[in-house]
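User: Here's a chain of 249 residues. Predict its fold as tokens.
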Amino acid sequence: YWRHSRELGFLSGNVEPALIQKWVESSDKHSRERTRRVVTCNRLIEIGVELDQQWLYKIKSGNKYSPSKAIEPRDLPSDAQVEAFVDSISNPRWKKVFAYIATWGLRNHEPFRLHNLPDELGYLAIADNSKTGFREIIPAHPEWIDRWELNDIELPAHDSTWCNADLGRKVTKYMARHRHLAAWRVLPKTYDLRHAWAARLHTHERYSKVDVELAAEMMGHSEKVHRADYLRWTKKEDIKRRLRQKMEA
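Assistant: Prediction complete.
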């Protein structure tokens, strides 16, 4: 709601239904953002803003977005591609940011929301003021801690009062300016590193004892979201390998 309030605050003129409707319709028709704007409209109605209920119903029913609906598998970076990308970042502070994201599967803003540095086992804790609150995460792969000297982190310049969204956008913008360093697809994104971490937990034999529930907990989302958005990205041969391991155990 904070982000939407700010967006609406930038609109000129009085708060009129037509203006809010135009703002909602400016989002992609079948998108999560369209769904979120509809939710914001419901809150606006609760505080007295009069919106056309028939229009709102039409917008809701016309949005086919579903968070659990199958999506196209992403072209996730291999471990070698992750290493090459992080190694190629010349700015040492930004190198650490992307190394933390890759090693612990963090969201864009979470390197700025650490509760503590990695302990002797490599476990990292995210602070309460992150998107989904406090949680602990294992490194995947732990050897990257030494490779990029991740026992300490000196962050890029930022305003300590920034919200998570602003911090995340700062990371996104840096990635956009340096995506030529990433070789795994045409338009690589920072979240590809987080997704690769998730896929690594379900495909690498080192993490064969990490179940779906624990993986979801470490990523800071529900098991339902994890199954819907991550498990489908694992390669068939890796799933077959893990099935063989379970049958032989």
